[in-house]
Amino acid sequence: MRFEELPRDWAQRPVTDPEVFEGVVDLIATDRSRSEGATWLLLCHPNGRLLQPICVPDEPRRVDVGRVLEGVGRLLGEVSGQDVHDVVMVIARPGRLTATPRDHDLRAAFEGACRVSGVTLRAVAIAAPSGVAVLPAEGDWAAA
């Protein structure tokens, strides 16, 4: 789904609603973040609606798991004190939409940071120049 196809009430729905998820990700992940590489953290209200997107510039060729755990863990620790307990992660990057080992490594690092911070990672998506795709949970990706 493209963001132009989002229903009028998308902002009142949880970000992870399957009828709006890919459109919201398409709206948030800019062309620039897809061409240069970035990770978006979508902070959610307690009811799952989008509260605030945060863009973290990224190096799309490698993952420093320790750096991700430290930086994202600190950020999530701060926002959890402000009643944010659910997040969505978007990996914006150049290239194909097919998930890579790096995408799975980045997801695992975010899951670790969420666990340490007491925040729930509700969904992960990839945003590439060609579109948006959901990145299934680790146990599901081999079948995808």
* Helical content (DSSP H or I, runs of 4+): 25-40%
Note poorly predicted spans. 140-144
Provide the CATH superfamily. Cytidine Deaminase, domain 2
CATH top level?
A: Alpha Beta
CATH architecture: 3-Layer(aba) Sandwich
For the largest beta-sheet, the strand count, sense and barrel status come to: 5 strands, mixed
- Cα-based radius of gyration, to the nearest Å: 14 Å
The total beta strand count reads 5
Query: Secondary-structure element order, as H and E?
Result: HHEEHEHEEH
Mean pLDDT: 86
**Quaternary state of the chains:** single chain
Portion in beta strands: 15-25%
- The total domain count is 1
Key descriptive features of the protein:
five-stranded mixed beta sheet, alpha+beta, 144 residues, disordered C terminus, Cytidine Deaminase, domain 2, globular
What secondary-structure arrangement, pairings included, does this model have?
Layout: H1 21-28, H2 31-36, E1 38-44, E2 50-57, H3 65-80, E3 86-92, H4 101-117, E4 120-128, E5 131-134, H5 138-141
Parallel strand pairs: 3-4
Antiparallel strand pairs: 1-2, 1-3, 4-5
Helix pairs in contact: 3-4
What would you note in describing this structure?
This protein is an alpha+beta fold and 144 residues long. The protein has one domain (3-136): Cytidine Deaminase, domain 2 (3-Layer(aba) Sandwich), CATH 3.40.140. The chain is built from five helices and five strands; from the N terminus they run ααββαβαββα. A five-stranded mixed beta sheet has the order 2-1-3-4-5, with helices on both faces. Helix 4 (101-117) links the parallel strand 3 and strand 4. It is globular, with a radius of gyration of 14 Å.
